[in-house]
Write a structure and sequence with these properties.
heterodimer; A: about 425 residues; alpha+beta; Cytochrome p450; 5-stranded mixed sheet; 3-stranded antiparallel sheet; B: Alpha-Beta Plaits; two-stranded antiparallel sheet; two-stranded antiparallel ribbon; 2 helices; about 30% helix
């Protein structure tokens, strides 16, 4: 296990706390106690404030749907020691905005992510998955599934969508890892941020000069037609948000869910036998793994009632998505993977006005990966002892750092 | 069953379209909800109620 500088203590005076190394797919066991005890305790967060921690499914939904709980501090800022909570929100920072300002930007972006638009991308995603499987089989095992499959597929998709040259991926993949680390030192963070902003500014200026038929180009045109021109700063921030959210989350879901499914051969066999299961399987794995592992931060702008408790104006609140997704009053036997559960009302994409904009894209990518990976490589297995797999306990988005896998010769045909 | 949608509240997550594609759609221009059927037939009632439950913006109201 990796040491984390965030000092995730195991007592529940603080939040978050460390996972049990024996149960790397489960949230810390203490979160079950949080759900069961009355009220919403005020716990110390690494950033240096106390926050009311909401852990029950119904309470998480109620909190995230409440317009008096503001998002102006970044979603997982509470886990960043020395982070700044009260700085002004950068223009275009969708995840930190509330109300009308948020709605304006969300509506300019949403046409790119509708169910219809994303379904139209499915053949492209299928082709990409098949190409990468061909390359994997050509390469032969053992091979790192993260580097050769889980990371490139979503990166290629979001690059294609945004109009980013995939050849430039080194300019954002490494920086992303720094930016979402809870353990990154301030100088490295600053440097990564500068590099990503520089990269995106260049791209935005190119698109502004000649908007092409890609997401950024269409966004620029759409905003202009609506009389809502976006500034360079807004476009840069939006572009970075989409680029990071678009590849990092799905990449981690692919790696982590593949590992989790390899540990549950009966569920994997069911999926292999019935590709029609892919839809519910993806939502179940999203629920079970809850990779936005520390939850999201809000601040009350007025008194808010959550369950039987009052959150007073000014108080901070953390909605623990992973705890809500294991609430047995909603998901019976919550610590078990059941690909037939039909758990579509999970909290892995958040809830409320900030619920993941790209969720339909994530679903399509994961569905195609789930089905094709295990059909093409039915003997897929871990190439190292399970204990040697390293988990990202120090990143806002949970996953595995690498996933060495191999398979039987017969799958190479 | 009577269904109402609040377009001003909608955030275009698309959950309703996935859950009940015969009842809900999204506008091409901004991705916001379009109600296709105000009075869904019995066989679509369960899916419609599920869509209302899923909606992250509480923008779907179902009346029996």
């Amino acid at each position: 296990m990796t040491e984390t500088a965030t000092d995730l203590r195991s007592d529940l005076a603080s939040f978050p706390t460390a996972r049990d190394p024996e149960c790397p797919f489960d949230p810390p066991a203490e979160y079950a106690d949080l759900r069961e005890q009355e009220g919403t305790p005020s716990l110390a967060c690494p950033v240096g404030v106390n926050a009311r921690v909401v852990s029950r499914y119904a309470d998480v939904r109620a909190a995230l749907a409440d317009p008096n709980l503001s998002s102006h501090a970044a979603p997982s800022t509470h886990v960043v020691p020395g982070g700044l909570l009260d700085r002004p929100v950068a223009p275009g920072s969708l995840l930190n905005m509330d109300g009308a300002g948020h709605a304006r930007l969300r509506r300019l972006l949403t046409p790119e992510f509708t169910v219809k638009r994303i379904q139209a991308l499915r053949p492209y995603v299928q082709g990409l998955v098949d190409d990468h499987l061909d390359a994997l089989l050509e390469h032969g095992g053992p091979v790192d599934l993260v580097e050769h499959f889980a990371l490139p597929i979503p990166s290629l998709v979001i690059c294609e969508l945004l109009g980013v040259d995939y050849g430039d991926r080194d300019r954002f993949q490494e920086q992303t890892a720094v930016l979402i680390g809870t353990n990154s030192d301030p100088a490295a963070l600053e440097q990564a941020n500068l590099e990503v902003v520089g990269f995106m500014t260049q791209l935005v200026l190119t698109k502004l000069a000649a908007p092409g038929d890609d997401l950024l180009g269409r966004l620029i045109v759409r905003a202009g037609e609506n009389g809502q021109e976006l500034s360079v700063e807004e476009l840069v921030t939006l572009g970075i948000t989409l680029l990071i959210a678009g590849h990092e989350t799905t990449a981690n879901m692919i790696g982590l869910s593949t590992l989790a499914l390899l540990r549950q051969p009966d569920q994997l066999a069911a999926l292999r036998a019935d590709p029609g299961l892919a839809g519910t399987a993806v939502d179940e794995m999203l629920r079970y793994l809850s990779i936005v592992q520390f939850g999201v931060l809000r601040q009350a702008t007025g008194d808010v009632t959550v369950g039987d408790e009052t959150i007073k104006a000014g108080e901070w609140l953390v909605a623990a998505l992973s705890a809500g997704n294991r609430d047995e009053s909603v998901f019976p036997d919550p610590d078990r993977i059941d690909l037939r559960r039909g758990a579509t009302a999970h909290l892995a994409f958040g809830y409320g006005i900030h619920q993941c904009l790209g969720q339909q894209l994530a679903r399509v990518e994961l569905q195609e990966v789930f089905v094709r990976l295990h059909q093409r490589i039915p003997t897929l297995r871990l190439a190292v002892p399970f204990e040697d797999v390293e988990f990202k306990n120090d990143a806002l988005v949970y996953g595995v750092r690498a996933l060495p896998v191999t398979w039987d010769e017969e799958d190479n045909r | 069953m009577k269904v109402r949608v609040d377009v001003d509240a909608c955030v275009g997550a698309g959950q309703c379209v996935l859950a009940a594609p015969d009842v809900f759609d999204q506008r091409d221009e901004d991705g916001m909800v379009v109600l296709l059927v105000e009075d869904p037939p019995a066989e679509l009632e369960a899916a419609t109620e599920h869509a209302a439950l899923l909606c992250p913006a509480l923008a779907i109201v179902v009346e029996r």
